[in-house]
């Protein structure tokens, strides 16, 4: 099933199920519990991020070529950092370049996002996918100056700004999508700048869930960003290519769709 979240023309938020003819039918109930798809055509005035994250966990340096391009060694275990739920942004809404706490080195990162559907802890990789509600596209927007130079060796400051976690445009449920070998790419103003496959991950989705759930409850609504492939602006030669106001970034993952956000100044 392809699930969207949207505002109706009165400004109320709903979930809906996209149909093959392009329409969407309203969903009744709890997408993490029991729900049903009604016969009522959804009044989609504006698309929202397909879920409201309860937390956003991120894995760094998880594609072999990306680790190489940043000069980092491939880690022995998945590297965990977090983004705040304040960072959530909807499809089509702007990524804001921080101006109050200024950054001049804002970068894009296409990522497969995994949404946990049922609470889990100490999950083995064999059972990991049973706890996944579905998958969507994410942009792990990163202020490299704060991430690398100004954050006291912690990445979080540079990853945490408002609008730095666009998600969407839809959630494809786990019964419809295998996450292991999907094309994932980024277009910056129409030019392809990242282009890889999820099969290049150092730690695949089951391995990530096994590790992150170790002695740790993953609550429903946990969104896991699974790392980005090579081609980030930071590693562009001869000079890094930072996002500027007026740019447009699209993340596309095979079987999920395209997540597009314009870039504006705060
Ligand atoms: Zn990332």
List the helices and strands and how they pair.
Elements lengths: L1 E6 L5 E6 L5 E6 L5 E7 L4 E3 L6 E6 L3 H6 L9 E5 L4 E2 L5 E3 L8 E2 L2 E7 L15 E8 L2 E2 H6 L6 H4 L5 E9 L9 E6 L2 E7 L7 H8 L9 E4 L22 E6 L3 E9 L1
Parallel strand pairs: 6-17, 8-14, 9-19
Antiparallel strand pairs: 1-2, 1-5, 1-14, 2-3, 3-4, 6-7, 10-13, 11-12, 11-17, 12-14, 15-16, 15-18, 18-19
This protein binds zinc ion.
Report what the structure shows.
There is one protein chain. The protein starts with a strand and ends with a strand. Helix content is 9%, strand content 39%. The chain folds into two domains: 1-48; 49-265, Fumarylacetoacetase-like, C-terminal domain (Fumarylacetoacetate hydrolase, domain 2). Strand 1 and strand 2 (13-18) form a beta hairpin. The strands form three sheets. Strands 1, 2, 3, 4, 5, 6, 7, 8, 11, 12, 14 and 17 form a twelve-stranded mixed sheet that branches. The protein is globular, with a radius of gyration of 18 Å. The protein has 266 residues and is mainly β. It binds zinc ion (ZN). Residues 58, 60, 109, 111, 140, 225, 227-228 line the site of zinc ion. Zinc ion binds next to strand 6.
Largest sheet: 12 strands, mixed
Q: Which small molecules are bound?
A: zinc ion
Strand content: 35-45%
CATH architecture of the largest domain: Alpha-Beta Complex
Low-confidence parts lasting 5 or more residues at pLDDT below 50? Answer: none
CATH superfamily of the largest domain: Fumarylacetoacetase-like, C-terminal domain
Return the CATH class of the largest domain.
Alpha Beta
Q: How big is the Rg?
A: 18 Å
Helix content: under 10%
- Shape, principal axes of CA atoms: globular
By CATH, the topology of the largest domain is Fumarylacetoacetate hydrolase, domain 2
Return the average pLDDT rounded to an integer: 96
Question: How many distinct folded domains?
Answer: 2
First-last Cα distance = 36 Å
Number of strands: 19
H/E series, N to C?
A: EEEEEEHEEEEEEEHHEEEHEEE
Number of helices: 4
Oligomer: single chain
């Amino acid at each position: 099933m392809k699930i969207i979240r949207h505002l109706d023309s009165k400004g109320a938020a709903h979930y809906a199920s996209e149909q093959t003819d392009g329409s969407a039918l309203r969903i009744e109930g709890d997408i993490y519990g029991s729900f049903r798809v009604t016969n009522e055509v959804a009044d989609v005035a504006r698309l929202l991020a397909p879920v409201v994250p309860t937390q956003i966990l991120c894995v760094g340096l998880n594609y072999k070529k990306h680790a190489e391009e940043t000069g980092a060694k491939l880690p022995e275990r998945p590297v965990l950092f977090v983004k705040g739920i304040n960072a959530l942004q909807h499809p089509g809404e702007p990524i804001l370049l921080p101006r109050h706490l200024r950054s001049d080195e804002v970068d894009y990162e296409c990522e497969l996002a995994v949404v946990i559907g049922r609470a889990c802890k100490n999950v083995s990789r064999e059972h990991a996918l049973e706890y996944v509600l579905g998958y969507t596209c994410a942009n792990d927007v990163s202020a490299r100056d704060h991430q690398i130079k100004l954050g006291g060796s912690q990445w979080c400051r540079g990853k945490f700004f408002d609008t730095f976690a666009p998600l969407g445009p839809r959630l494809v449920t786990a019964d419809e999508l295998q996450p292991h070998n999907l094309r994932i790419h980024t277009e910056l103003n129409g030019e392809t700048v990242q282009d890889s496959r999820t099969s290049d991950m150092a730690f695949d989705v089951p391995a990530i869930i096994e590790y992150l759930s170790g002695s740790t409850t993953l609550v429903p609504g946990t969104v896991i960003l699974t790392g980005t492939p090579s081609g980030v602006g930071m590693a562009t030669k001869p000079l890094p290519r930072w996002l500027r106001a007026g740019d447009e970034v699209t993340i596309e993952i095979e079987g999920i769709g395209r997540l597009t956000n314009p870039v504006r100044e705060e």
